[in-house]
Amino acid sequence: MLDTEGPEGIKVLLQKGRNNVPMWLWLFAVVGFYFLFRWYWYRQTLQNLTDKYVFITGCDSGFGNLLACQLDGQGLRVLAACLTQRGAEQLKEGTSQRLQTIILDVTDSESVAAAANWVKLQVGDRGLWGLVNNAGISLPSLPNEWLLKDDFLKILNVNLLGLIDVTLSLLPLIRKAKGRIVNVSSMAGRISLVGGGYSISKYGVEAFSDSLRRELCSFGVKVCIIEPGSFKTLLVEPKYFEKSIQQIWSRLPAETKESYGQNFYNTCEFSASFLKDRGNFDH
């Protein structure tokens, strides 16, 4: 006969009841609590958005353009860097007066320095709350043997070295605001599926971001990476792929063309034309 009298008896009964609860029920409770917490966490919104400045590169089109418009609509003070005057003007047409634009070539250190000084004047003592390194290119992305050193540098100068230059130039302002850095990387920064500088540059972005994150965490600065998949931006516009393939192929030595063969070239062209079936490329 089990003695259930007194504190010890109650303890035994509680323990026995706990042991009778099925494991799947405990698992269900834990998973449910996890998703409830996530739901609550992501519903939290930031306050005083109108006092926060965000600098975004590559705002002529694509992700940068969309993000600039969205953040402007939410009330943040967007500082949008565009490569062309036309891109800057088109962006201004669809946004509020809060959004300011500047022409920036991330491969030009003087242009980067001028943009950093401009940002400093805009933000004043508040510092820079957010930096989004979005500017990037993907071409040429073809078999390594087909490419020249300059083909690799063309991509690295934009996607990696330009990103580093912009980040280092703005770090004091980001540190002052205890802000965050968002670097647009890619799944190509984890697995290299094609030759050229694109995957190399994205591997570099991942490494730079990881080291920067550890260095700046004690200052209250967050460093994040976004790895988009295949989205319909100008980065994967079929006509640019086709033009790049044709230009690179035309300059190859006859021996290289013969080694790879026409079928290989046709496969590359087919890969570019396949993108046409992905939908309309509006950005």
TrEMBL record:
<dbReference type="InterPro" id="IPR002347">
    <property type="entry name" value="SDR_fam"/>
</dbReference>
<dbReference type="InterPro" id="IPR020904">
    <property type="entry name" value="Sc_DH/Rdtase_CS"/>
</dbReference>
<keyword id="KW-1133">Transmembrane helix</keyword>
<dbReference type="InterPro" id="IPR036291">
    <property type="entry name" value="NAD(P)-bd_dom_sf"/>
</dbReference>
<comment type="similarity">
    <text>Belongs to the short-chain dehydrogenases/reductases (SDR) family.</text>
</comment>
<protein>
    <submittedName>
        <fullName>Retinol dehydrogenase 16-like isoform X1</fullName>
    </submittedName>
</protein>
<dbReference type="GO" id="GO:0008202">
    <property type="term" value="P:steroid metabolic process"/>
</dbReference>
<keyword id="KW-0472">Membrane</keyword>
<keyword id="KW-0560">Oxidoreductase</keyword>
<keyword id="KW-0812">Transmembrane</keyword>
<dbReference type="GO" id="GO:0016491">
    <property type="term" value="F:oxidoreductase activity"/>
</dbReference>
<dbReference type="Pfam" id="PF00106">
    <property type="entry name" value="adh_short"/>
</dbReference>
<feature type="transmembrane region" description="Helical">
    <location>
        <begin position="21"/>
        <end position="41"/>
    </location>
</feature>
